[in-house]
């Protein structure tokens, strides 16, 4: 297996919703982080609803979410997705969703709305606790 989402293999963070306590490019570092500072911690949401409701899978239903767009260094066939929240005790995300799209090299600048244009994306990992 090759880690296509590693900075060592050319992956880059090209867009994100929040870099308050840590930059999402920290997600691309090889190996496990040694402390919480090696991860991506976002600011507390001020628009969080006063009453939280979960769906049938236990995923909280909130109006907004934090996100990061990563450009993989190479194309590849996905075999495994690993989400590591090792040092996030009590402040880890409620859930994760992974989406992907293919944009040929050189066409990124022509697609300025790639982070928000849902027609380009397909779900790889639906929302999970």
From TrEMBL:
GO terms for molecular function: allantoicase activity. The lineage of its organism: Eukaryota, Metazoa, Ecdysozoa, Arthropoda, Crustacea. PANTHER family: ALLANTOICASE, INACTIVE ALLANTOICASE-RELATED. InterPro entries: Allantoicase, Allantoicase_dom, Galactose-bd-like_sf. Belongs to the allantoicase family. This is Allantoate amidinohydrolase. One of its GO terms (biological process) is allantoin catabolic process. Pfam families: Allantoicase (PF03561). SUPFAM superfamilies: Galactose-binding domain-like (SSF49785). Residues 10-129 form the Allantoicase domain.
């Amino acid at each position: 297996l090759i880690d296509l989402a590693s900075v060592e293999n050319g992956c880059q963070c090209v867009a994100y919703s929040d870099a308050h306590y840590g930059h999402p490019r920290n997600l691309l570092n090889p190996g496990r982080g040694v402390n919480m500072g090696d991860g991506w911690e976002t600011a507390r949401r001020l628009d969080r609803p006063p009453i939280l409701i979960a769906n049938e899978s236990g995923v909280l239903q909130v109006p907004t979410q934090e996100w990061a767009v990563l450009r993989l260094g190479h194309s590849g066939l996905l075999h495994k997705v690993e989400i590591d929240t090792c040092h996030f005790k009590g402040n880890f995300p409620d859930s994760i969703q992974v989406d992907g799209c293919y944009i040929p090299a050189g066409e990124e600048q022509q697609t300025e709305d790639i982070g928000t244009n849902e027609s380009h994306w397909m779900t790889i990992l639906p929302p999970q606790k």
